[in-house]
Write a structure and sequence with these properties.
The protein is α/β, with parallel strands linked by helices. The chain has 3 domains: 11-223, 3-Layer(aba) Sandwich (Rossmann fold), CATH 3.40.50.1820; 228-328, no CATH class; 401-469, 3-Layer(aba) Sandwich (Rossmann fold), CATH 3.40.50. Helix content is 37%, strand content 17%. The strands form 2 sheets. The chain has a 10-stranded mixed beta sheet, sandwiched between helices. Strands 4-5 form a two-stranded antiparallel ribbon. α6 (229-242) runs antiparallel to α7 (248-257). The protein is globular, with a radius of gyration of 21 Å.
Protein backbone atom coordinates (compact mmCIF):
# COMPACT_ATOMS: atom_id res chain seq x y z
CA UNK A 1 0.00 0.00 0.00
CA UNK A 2 1.46 3.38 -1.03
CA UNK A 3 1.89 6.15 1.53
CA UNK A 4 1.24 6.18 5.27
CA UNK A 5 -2.11 5.16 6.71
CA UNK A 6 -3.62 7.42 9.37
CA UNK A 7 -2.72 4.93 12.11
CA UNK A 8 0.84 4.60 10.79
CA UNK A 9 1.22 8.39 10.85
CA UNK A 10 -0.01 8.45 14.45
CA UNK A 11 2.48 5.75 15.33
CA UNK A 12 5.33 7.64 13.59
CA UNK A 13 4.41 10.85 15.41
CA UNK A 14 4.33 9.08 18.79
CA UNK A 15 7.72 7.51 18.15
CA UNK A 16 9.21 10.91 17.19
CA UNK A 17 7.88 12.42 20.42
CA UNK A 18 9.20 9.43 22.36
CA UNK A 19 12.66 9.90 20.89
CA UNK A 20 12.65 13.53 22.06
CA UNK A 21 11.56 12.43 25.54
CA UNK A 22 14.25 9.77 25.66
CA UNK A 23 16.91 12.26 24.52
CA UNK A 24 16.02 14.34 27.57
CA UNK A 25 16.47 11.26 29.73
CA UNK A 26 19.89 10.59 28.21
CA UNK A 27 20.99 14.21 28.59
CA UNK A 28 20.46 14.28 32.33
CA UNK A 29 22.24 10.96 32.80
CA UNK A 30 25.44 11.93 30.99
CA UNK A 31 27.53 11.53 34.13
CA UNK A 32 25.78 8.30 35.04
CA UNK A 33 25.77 6.43 38.33
CA UNK A 34 28.92 4.56 39.22
CA UNK A 35 28.76 0.93 40.25
CA UNK A 36 29.08 0.35 43.96
CA UNK A 37 29.81 -2.82 45.91
CA UNK A 38 27.59 -5.09 47.95
CA UNK A 39 28.15 -3.24 51.22
CA UNK A 40 27.59 0.09 49.53
CA UNK A 41 24.27 -1.17 48.17
CA UNK A 42 22.90 -2.20 51.56
CA UNK A 43 19.66 -0.31 52.25
CA UNK A 44 19.29 1.36 55.62
CA UNK A 45 16.67 3.79 56.89
CA UNK A 46 14.22 3.34 54.03
CA UNK A 47 11.45 5.83 54.89
CA UNK A 48 8.44 4.19 56.47
CA UNK A 49 9.98 0.71 56.45
CA UNK A 50 8.80 -1.67 59.18
CA UNK A 51 11.39 -3.59 61.17
CA UNK A 52 12.59 -6.80 59.49
CA UNK A 53 15.13 -9.51 60.21
CA UNK A 54 16.51 -9.76 56.66
CA UNK A 55 18.89 -7.59 54.65
CA UNK A 56 18.05 -5.88 51.38
CA UNK A 57 20.18 -4.11 48.79
CA UNK A 58 19.56 -1.72 45.92
CA UNK A 59 21.63 0.04 43.30
CA UNK A 60 22.98 -0.04 39.77
CA UNK A 61 24.83 -2.62 37.72
CA UNK A 62 26.53 -1.26 34.60
CA UNK A 63 25.82 -3.56 31.64
CA UNK A 64 27.64 -1.59 28.92
CA UNK A 65 30.44 0.83 29.75
CA UNK A 66 30.88 2.33 26.28
CA UNK A 67 27.18 3.27 26.04
CA UNK A 68 26.78 4.04 29.73
CA UNK A 69 23.95 1.58 30.28
CA UNK A 70 23.01 0.55 33.81
CA UNK A 71 20.11 -1.43 35.25
CA UNK A 72 18.62 -0.73 38.66
CA UNK A 73 17.92 -3.61 41.03
CA UNK A 74 16.39 -4.27 44.44
CA UNK A 75 17.41 -7.49 46.18
CA UNK A 76 15.82 -9.06 49.25
CA UNK A 77 17.40 -11.87 51.19
CA UNK A 78 15.10 -14.65 52.34
CA UNK A 79 13.49 -14.13 55.73
CA UNK A 80 15.49 -16.97 57.24
CA UNK A 81 18.49 -19.04 56.19
CA UNK A 82 19.15 -17.14 52.93
CA UNK A 83 22.34 -19.15 52.42
CA UNK A 84 20.25 -22.29 51.84
CA UNK A 85 17.38 -20.76 49.83
CA UNK A 86 17.18 -20.50 46.02
CA UNK A 87 17.60 -17.21 44.15
CA UNK A 88 14.70 -15.95 42.03
CA UNK A 89 14.88 -13.16 39.45
CA UNK A 90 11.50 -11.48 38.88
CA UNK A 91 10.74 -9.44 35.75
CA UNK A 92 7.67 -7.44 34.84
CA UNK A 93 6.70 -6.69 31.26
CA UNK A 94 5.13 -3.85 29.33
CA UNK A 95 7.47 -3.46 27.56
CA UNK A 96 8.35 -0.51 29.75
CA UNK A 97 6.88 -1.41 33.17
CA UNK A 98 8.85 -1.61 36.39
CA UNK A 99 9.41 -4.76 38.40
CA UNK A 100 10.02 -2.43 41.36
CA UNK A 101 6.66 -0.72 40.88
CA UNK A 102 4.74 -3.96 40.35
CA UNK A 103 6.44 -7.17 41.45
CA UNK A 104 8.31 -5.76 44.44
CA UNK A 105 5.80 -3.18 45.66
CA UNK A 106 2.32 -4.62 45.14
CA UNK A 107 2.71 -8.31 44.36
CA UNK A 108 5.33 -10.65 45.82
CA UNK A 109 7.89 -8.41 47.52
CA UNK A 110 8.14 -8.07 51.31
CA UNK A 111 7.30 -4.34 51.37
CA UNK A 112 4.10 -2.92 49.93
CA UNK A 113 3.47 0.80 49.58
CA UNK A 114 0.70 2.23 51.73
CA UNK A 115 -2.28 3.73 49.96
CA UNK A 116 -1.23 7.26 50.80
CA UNK A 117 2.31 6.67 49.54
CA UNK A 118 3.88 7.79 52.82
CA UNK A 119 5.29 4.49 53.95
CA UNK A 120 5.47 0.71 53.67
CA UNK A 121 3.83 -2.27 55.30
CA UNK A 122 4.84 -5.92 55.43
CA UNK A 123 3.42 -8.38 52.92
CA UNK A 124 2.66 -11.49 54.94
CA UNK A 125 2.69 -13.56 51.73
CA UNK A 126 6.01 -12.32 50.39
CA UNK A 127 7.90 -14.84 48.30
CA UNK A 128 11.07 -14.08 50.27
CA UNK A 129 9.64 -16.44 52.88
CA UNK A 130 10.88 -19.25 50.62
CA UNK A 131 13.50 -17.64 48.35
CA UNK A 132 15.94 -14.78 47.87
CA UNK A 133 14.25 -12.26 45.56
CA UNK A 134 15.95 -10.11 42.91
CA UNK A 135 13.92 -7.44 41.09
CA UNK A 136 15.41 -5.65 38.06
CA UNK A 137 14.06 -2.68 36.11
CA UNK A 138 14.63 -3.77 32.53
CA UNK A 139 15.29 -2.71 29.81
CA UNK A 140 17.05 0.65 30.14
CA UNK A 141 14.50 3.45 30.26
CA UNK A 142 12.34 1.56 32.76
CA UNK A 143 12.13 3.10 36.23
CA UNK A 144 15.58 4.17 37.41
CA UNK A 145 17.52 2.22 34.74
CA UNK A 146 19.27 4.39 32.18
CA UNK A 147 21.63 4.75 29.23
CA UNK A 148 23.90 7.62 28.19
CA UNK A 149 23.44 6.77 24.49
CA UNK A 150 20.18 7.95 22.96
CA UNK A 151 20.53 5.68 19.91
CA UNK A 152 20.06 2.68 22.21
CA UNK A 153 16.37 3.49 22.33
CA UNK A 154 16.07 3.05 18.56
CA UNK A 155 17.31 -0.54 18.76
CA UNK A 156 15.64 -1.90 21.91
CA UNK A 157 13.91 -5.20 21.23
CA UNK A 158 13.72 -8.62 22.85
CA UNK A 159 17.29 -9.55 21.90
CA UNK A 160 18.64 -6.24 23.27
CA UNK A 161 16.74 -6.79 26.52
CA UNK A 162 17.91 -10.39 26.92
CA UNK A 163 21.56 -9.48 26.30
CA UNK A 164 21.48 -6.67 28.86
CA UNK A 165 19.71 -8.90 31.39
CA UNK A 166 22.33 -11.60 30.84
CA UNK A 167 25.15 -9.11 31.33
CA UNK A 168 23.40 -7.81 34.45
CA UNK A 169 23.32 -11.29 35.95
CA UNK A 170 26.97 -11.99 35.21
CA UNK A 171 28.02 -8.76 36.93
CA UNK A 172 25.50 -9.04 39.76
CA UNK A 173 26.95 -12.42 40.69
CA UNK A 174 30.39 -10.81 40.80
CA UNK A 175 29.00 -8.44 43.41
CA UNK A 176 27.14 -11.23 45.25
CA UNK A 177 29.34 -14.30 44.59
CA UNK A 178 27.88 -16.21 47.54
CA UNK A 179 24.66 -16.73 45.53
CA UNK A 180 26.30 -18.12 42.42
CA UNK A 181 25.99 -21.72 43.58
CA UNK A 182 22.34 -21.39 44.61
CA UNK A 183 19.53 -22.90 42.59
CA UNK A 184 18.47 -20.13 40.25
CA UNK A 185 15.01 -19.50 38.81
CA UNK A 186 13.55 -16.81 36.55
CA UNK A 187 9.97 -15.64 37.01
CA UNK A 188 7.70 -12.96 35.63
CA UNK A 189 4.37 -12.07 34.12
CA UNK A 190 2.73 -10.49 31.08
CA UNK A 191 5.33 -9.36 28.48
CA UNK A 192 7.92 -11.04 30.65
CA UNK A 193 6.44 -14.08 28.93
CA UNK A 194 9.00 -13.03 26.31
CA UNK A 195 11.76 -11.82 28.64
CA UNK A 196 11.88 -14.91 30.86
CA UNK A 197 12.23 -17.77 28.35
CA UNK A 198 14.53 -15.68 26.15
CA UNK A 199 16.88 -15.00 29.06
CA UNK A 200 16.72 -18.68 30.06
CA UNK A 201 17.61 -19.64 26.47
CA UNK A 202 20.57 -17.26 26.50
CA UNK A 203 21.87 -18.76 29.74
CA UNK A 204 21.54 -22.22 28.21
CA UNK A 205 23.12 -21.29 24.86
CA UNK A 206 26.14 -19.62 26.45
CA UNK A 207 27.02 -22.87 28.20
CA UNK A 208 25.94 -25.59 25.76
CA UNK A 209 24.16 -27.38 28.59
CA UNK A 210 22.65 -26.55 31.96
CA UNK A 211 25.22 -28.60 33.84
CA UNK A 212 28.15 -26.64 32.39
CA UNK A 213 26.86 -23.14 33.15
CA UNK A 214 28.37 -21.27 36.09
CA UNK A 215 24.83 -20.23 37.07
CA UNK A 216 22.73 -23.08 38.41
CA UNK A 217 19.61 -22.42 36.32
CA UNK A 218 16.85 -24.85 37.31
CA UNK A 219 13.82 -23.46 35.48
CA UNK A 220 11.32 -20.67 35.05
CA UNK A 221 7.74 -19.87 36.00
CA UNK A 222 5.60 -17.29 34.17
CA UNK A 223 2.12 -15.92 34.79
CA UNK A 224 -0.45 -14.70 32.25
CA UNK A 225 2.40 -14.58 29.74
CA UNK A 226 2.38 -13.11 26.27
CA UNK A 227 3.66 -16.05 24.28
CA UNK A 228 2.53 -16.15 20.65
CA UNK A 229 0.75 -13.30 18.86
CA UNK A 230 -1.62 -15.49 16.89
CA UNK A 231 -2.83 -17.58 19.81
CA UNK A 232 -2.75 -14.65 22.26
CA UNK A 233 -5.02 -12.45 20.16
CA UNK A 234 -7.35 -15.21 19.11
CA UNK A 235 -7.75 -15.94 22.81
CA UNK A 236 -8.46 -12.29 23.59
CA UNK A 237 -11.34 -12.29 21.13
CA UNK A 238 -12.75 -15.62 22.28
CA UNK A 239 -12.49 -14.70 25.96
CA UNK A 240 -14.13 -11.29 25.51
CA UNK A 241 -17.08 -12.83 23.70
CA UNK A 242 -17.47 -15.81 26.05
CA UNK A 243 -17.47 -13.47 29.06
CA UNK A 244 -20.05 -11.12 27.57
CA UNK A 245 -17.62 -8.23 27.15
CA UNK A 246 -17.95 -7.86 23.41
CA UNK A 247 -21.02 -8.03 21.19
CA UNK A 248 -21.94 -10.86 18.86
CA UNK A 249 -21.52 -8.46 15.96
CA UNK A 250 -17.99 -7.43 16.90
CA UNK A 251 -16.96 -11.01 17.58
CA UNK A 252 -18.30 -12.23 14.24
CA UNK A 253 -16.49 -9.37 12.51
CA UNK A 254 -13.19 -10.34 14.16
CA UNK A 255 -13.64 -13.96 13.17
CA UNK A 256 -14.38 -12.93 9.61
CA UNK A 257 -11.51 -10.50 8.99
CA UNK A 258 -8.73 -11.91 11.20
CA UNK A 259 -6.67 -14.87 10.08
CA UNK A 260 -5.11 -15.74 13.43
CA UNK A 261 -3.34 -18.79 12.05
CA UNK A 262 -1.55 -16.81 9.34
CA UNK A 263 0.86 -13.90 9.11
CA UNK A 264 -1.41 -11.60 7.13
CA UNK A 265 -2.41 -9.03 9.75
CA UNK A 266 -4.65 -6.60 7.90
CA UNK A 267 -5.89 -3.13 8.74
CA UNK A 268 -9.43 -4.55 8.91
CA UNK A 269 -8.31 -7.04 11.54
CA UNK A 270 -6.52 -4.33 13.57
CA UNK A 271 -9.65 -2.19 13.45
CA UNK A 272 -11.87 -5.07 14.53
CA UNK A 273 -9.57 -6.01 17.41
CA UNK A 274 -9.43 -2.38 18.55
CA UNK A 275 -13.23 -2.52 18.85
CA UNK A 276 -12.87 -5.32 21.39
CA UNK A 277 -10.42 -3.30 23.46
CA UNK A 278 -12.72 -0.28 23.24
CA UNK A 279 -15.53 -2.34 24.75
CA UNK A 280 -13.33 -2.88 27.82
CA UNK A 281 -13.30 0.89 28.31
CA UNK A 282 -15.64 0.94 31.32
CA UNK A 283 -14.00 -1.93 33.20
CA UNK A 284 -10.51 -3.16 34.04
CA UNK A 285 -9.29 -5.47 31.27
CA UNK A 286 -6.69 -6.93 33.65
CA UNK A 287 -9.32 -8.05 36.16
CA UNK A 288 -12.75 -8.04 34.58
CA UNK A 289 -14.67 -8.36 37.87
CA UNK A 290 -12.68 -5.83 39.88
CA UNK A 291 -13.86 -2.26 40.51
CA UNK A 292 -12.05 0.47 38.61
CA UNK A 293 -10.09 3.26 40.26
CA UNK A 294 -12.41 6.23 39.87
CA UNK A 295 -10.00 8.63 41.54
CA UNK A 296 -7.38 7.81 38.95
CA UNK A 297 -9.76 8.25 36.02
CA UNK A 298 -11.07 11.57 37.32
CA UNK A 299 -7.58 12.88 38.02
CA UNK A 300 -6.27 11.81 34.65
CA UNK A 301 -3.45 9.70 36.05
CA UNK A 302 -4.97 6.54 34.68
CA UNK A 303 -5.80 7.82 31.21
CA UNK A 304 -3.32 5.52 29.52
CA UNK A 305 -5.44 2.41 29.77
CA UNK A 306 -8.83 4.05 30.13
CA UNK A 307 -8.59 5.99 26.89
CA UNK A 308 -10.09 3.96 24.05
CA UNK A 309 -8.42 6.18 21.46
CA UNK A 310 -5.07 5.27 23.01
CA UNK A 311 -5.97 1.61 22.67
CA UNK A 312 -6.98 2.20 19.06
CA UNK A 313 -3.60 3.78 18.35
CA UNK A 314 -1.68 0.93 19.90
CA UNK A 315 -3.52 -1.63 17.77
CA UNK A 316 -1.49 -0.44 14.80
CA UNK A 317 1.51 -2.19 16.33
CA UNK A 318 0.48 -5.50 14.79
CA UNK A 319 -2.55 -6.13 16.97
CA UNK A 320 -1.14 -4.62 20.15
CA UNK A 321 1.82 -6.89 20.82
CA UNK A 322 2.89 -5.84 24.30
CA UNK A 323 0.07 -3.57 25.50
CA UNK A 324 0.86 -2.58 29.05
CA UNK A 325 0.83 -5.74 31.12
CA UNK A 326 -0.58 -5.36 34.60
CA UNK A 327 -1.55 -1.69 34.83
CA UNK A 328 -3.19 -0.78 38.16
CA UNK A 329 -4.26 2.88 37.96
CA UNK A 330 -4.85 3.35 41.67
CA UNK A 331 -1.62 1.77 42.77
CA UNK A 332 0.40 3.83 40.33
CA UNK A 333 -0.53 6.91 42.36
CA UNK A 334 0.76 5.34 45.58
CA UNK A 335 4.03 3.98 44.19
CA UNK A 336 4.73 7.12 42.15
CA UNK A 337 4.34 9.27 45.24
CA UNK A 338 6.62 7.03 47.27
CA UNK A 339 9.42 6.34 44.78
CA UNK A 340 9.60 9.99 43.73
CA UNK A 341 10.43 11.07 47.26
CA UNK A 342 14.07 12.29 47.41
CA UNK A 343 14.63 10.56 50.76
CA UNK A 344 13.37 7.24 49.35
CA UNK A 345 15.61 7.53 46.29
CA UNK A 346 18.59 8.38 48.47
CA UNK A 347 17.99 5.35 50.68
CA UNK A 348 17.74 3.10 47.60
CA UNK A 349 20.88 4.60 46.00
CA UNK A 350 18.75 5.60 43.01
CA UNK A 351 18.66 8.71 40.82
CA UNK A 352 21.82 10.32 42.16
CA UNK A 353 21.92 12.65 39.14
CA UNK A 354 18.58 14.30 39.89
CA UNK A 355 16.47 13.68 36.78
CA UNK A 356 14.01 16.51 35.97
CA UNK A 357 11.04 14.19 35.55
CA UNK A 358 9.28 11.67 37.73
CA UNK A 359 9.90 7.97 38.15
CA UNK A 360 6.92 6.13 36.71
CA UNK A 361 5.49 2.64 36.98
CA UNK A 362 5.45 2.37 33.17
CA UNK A 363 7.35 4.35 30.53
CA UNK A 364 5.07 5.32 27.63
CA UNK A 365 7.97 6.51 25.49
CA UNK A 366 9.80 3.22 25.78
CA UNK A 367 6.64 1.31 24.92
CA UNK A 368 6.24 3.32 21.72
CA UNK A 369 9.89 2.80 20.75
CA UNK A 370 10.16 -0.89 21.59
CA UNK A 371 10.71 -2.97 18.45
CA UNK A 372 8.48 -6.02 18.23
CA UNK A 373 10.64 -8.49 16.34
CA UNK A 374 9.71 -11.78 18.06
CA UNK A 375 6.11 -12.87 17.62
CA UNK A 376 6.33 -16.30 19.27
CA UNK A 377 8.50 -17.82 21.97
CA UNK A 378 6.98 -21.29 21.53
CA UNK A 379 10.12 -22.57 19.74
CA UNK A 380 12.09 -21.60 22.86
CA UNK A 381 9.69 -23.63 25.00
CA UNK A 382 10.31 -26.68 22.84
CA UNK A 383 14.06 -26.20 23.08
CA UNK A 384 14.17 -25.68 26.85
CA UNK A 385 11.71 -28.48 27.60
CA UNK A 386 14.07 -30.78 25.74
CA UNK A 387 16.96 -29.33 27.75
CA UNK A 388 15.24 -30.37 30.98
CA UNK A 389 14.28 -27.06 32.59
CA UNK A 390 11.48 -27.09 35.14
CA UNK A 391 8.79 -24.95 33.48
CA UNK A 392 5.49 -23.89 35.02
CA UNK A 393 2.95 -21.57 33.44
CA UNK A 394 -0.01 -20.12 35.33
CA UNK A 395 -3.04 -17.99 34.49
CA UNK A 396 -5.36 -15.88 36.56
CA UNK A 397 -8.69 -16.81 34.99
CA UNK A 398 -10.37 -13.39 35.06
CA UNK A 399 -7.70 -11.53 33.07
CA UNK A 400 -8.96 -10.24 29.72
CA UNK A 401 -5.59 -8.97 28.46
CA UNK A 402 -3.66 -12.27 28.40
CA UNK A 403 -6.58 -14.60 29.10
CA UNK A 404 -6.37 -18.21 30.15
CA UNK A 405 -7.84 -19.14 26.75
CA UNK A 406 -4.79 -17.68 24.98
CA UNK A 407 -2.35 -19.58 27.14
CA UNK A 408 -4.23 -22.85 26.69
CA UNK A 409 -4.08 -22.39 22.92
CA UNK A 410 -0.32 -21.82 23.15
CA UNK A 411 0.36 -24.84 25.33
CA UNK A 412 -1.90 -27.10 23.29
CA UNK A 413 0.09 -26.22 20.18
CA UNK A 414 3.22 -27.76 21.76
CA UNK A 415 1.63 -31.24 21.51
CA UNK A 416 3.18 -32.42 24.77
CA UNK A 417 2.52 -35.82 26.31
CA UNK A 418 0.12 -35.60 29.28
CA UNK A 419 1.43 -36.96 32.57
CA UNK A 420 -1.49 -35.95 34.81
CA UNK A 421 -4.86 -34.96 33.39
CA UNK A 422 -6.80 -31.79 34.16
CA UNK A 423 -7.58 -31.75 37.86
CA UNK A 424 -8.35 -29.19 40.58
CA UNK A 425 -5.63 -28.13 42.99
CA UNK A 426 -6.43 -27.19 46.56
CA UNK A 427 -5.22 -24.82 49.21
CA UNK A 428 -6.68 -24.59 52.70
CA UNK A 429 -9.34 -27.13 51.66
CA UNK A 430 -10.62 -24.93 48.84
CA UNK A 431 -10.21 -25.30 45.08
CA UNK A 432 -7.54 -22.80 44.11
CA UNK A 433 -7.78 -23.58 40.41
CA UNK A 434 -7.03 -26.38 37.99
CA UNK A 435 -3.84 -27.87 36.62
CA UNK A 436 -2.48 -30.27 34.06
CA UNK A 437 1.00 -31.79 33.94
CA UNK A 438 2.82 -32.62 30.73
CA UNK A 439 6.22 -34.09 30.02
CA UNK A 440 8.35 -31.01 30.65
CA UNK A 441 5.70 -28.45 31.62
CA UNK A 442 2.95 -27.85 34.18
CA UNK A 443 0.07 -25.46 33.53
CA UNK A 444 -2.32 -24.23 36.21
CA UNK A 445 -5.02 -21.65 36.74
CA UNK A 446 -5.83 -19.40 39.68
CA UNK A 447 -9.56 -19.26 40.27
CA UNK A 448 -10.73 -15.67 40.61
CA UNK A 449 -7.38 -13.99 39.91
CA UNK A 450 -6.66 -11.39 37.26
CA UNK A 451 -3.46 -10.38 35.48
CA UNK A 452 -1.57 -9.78 38.75
CA UNK A 453 -2.01 -13.14 40.45
CA UNK A 454 0.22 -12.48 43.51
CA UNK A 455 -1.80 -9.31 44.17
CA UNK A 456 -5.25 -10.89 43.72
CA UNK A 457 -4.50 -14.26 45.38
CA UNK A 458 -1.42 -13.71 47.55
CA UNK A 459 -1.88 -16.72 49.84
CA UNK A 460 -2.52 -19.13 46.97
CA UNK A 461 0.31 -17.65 44.90
CA UNK A 462 2.84 -18.19 47.68
CA UNK A 463 1.61 -21.75 48.12
CA UNK A 464 1.97 -22.54 44.42
CA UNK A 465 5.40 -20.90 44.24
CA UNK A 466 6.58 -22.93 47.24
CA UNK A 467 5.18 -26.09 45.63
CA UNK A 468 7.03 -25.26 42.42
CA UNK A 469 10.35 -24.78 44.21
CA UNK A 470 9.95 -27.96 46.26
CA UNK A 471 8.75 -30.19 43.41
CA UNK A 472 5.52 -30.69 45.31
CA UNK A 473 2.29 -32.30 44.19
CA UNK A 474 -0.54 -29.88 43.47
CA UNK A 475 -3.10 -32.66 43.61
CA UNK A 476 -2.76 -33.13 47.35
CA UNK A 477 -5.70 -31.66 49.29
CA UNK A 478 -4.70 -29.25 52.02
Amino acid sequence: MNGWTEMEMERKTRVTISVLNICLLVFVFVNGDGDGDKNGDRVFDLPGQPDVNFAHYAGYITVNESHGRALFYWFFEAEDEPSSKPLVLWLNGGPGCSSIGYGASIELGPFHVKTNGTGLYLNEYSWNKVANLLFVESPVGVGFSYTNTSSDFLTIDDKFTAEDSYEFLMRWFERFPEYKSHDFYIAGESYAGHYVPQLAELLYDRSGSLSKHPINLIGFIVGNPETDDSYDYEGIADYAWSHAITSDQTYKLVKRVCNFKGDNWTDDCSSAMSSIFAEYYQIDIYNIYAPTCLDSINSGTGARTRDSSSLQNKVSRRLLPGLYGGYDPCFEMYTSKYFNRPDVQQALHANSTGIPFQWSVCNNSLFDLYLTTVHSVLPIYKKLIKAGLKIWVYSGDIDGRVPVVSTRYCIDSLNLTIKEKWHPWYHEKQVGGWFISYEGLTFLTFRGAGHLVPLNKPNNALYVFKTYLNNGNLRIKR
